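[stage:ingest] chain + small molecule (zinc ion)
[stage:ingest] validated
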Amino acid sequence: MDKPPHDSPYVHSRVLKINAGFLLGSGLGTTNDSRFDFPALIVSDDLILEHLHGPLRMSRTTEGILVQAQLEAGVVDECYRCLDRVTKPVTIQIEELFTFDTTRTSEFSVLEDGVLDLAPLLRAEILIENARGFLCRPDCKGLCPTCGTNWNYNTCTCADEAVDPRLASLRKFLE
Ligand SMILES: [Zn+2]
Ligand SMILES: [Zn+2]
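[stage:predict] done
[stage:export] tokens:
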């Protein structure tokens, strides 16, 4: 995948570490509403977003902090047929409890000082949702398996030769 240029507006995944410390001392059921508005974001080595927007709610419960969010993201990936760079809009529905008890088998927990790291959660949600991969367009023609030509932009003669092996051997002979 193409990495974004260094002078890009991409921000680091550390912005997804949210301080929920102020909720720890508050009563059960206390909620806090905020929103994500990032123009471009690097979530992890294998996940880059062109944008991430949407409301986020954190609620204090007996067991931890419940995070609920409805996010719109533009996932940057490569087309699985032709490997061109594509940005796919996805909607992510999050409802996850970050527990206080780190000894439990819960996947997500409240870190020291009441910090919640949403990057692993976001990554899991997006990669599960899009495990089948992206196409640059529904009718992407893909790459020639023989010479690597991108059939969306160019043609090659490999397919013709494959149809008639005698012609291929003749061509080899002539070379
Ligand atoms: Zn494609
Ligand atoms: Zn070819």
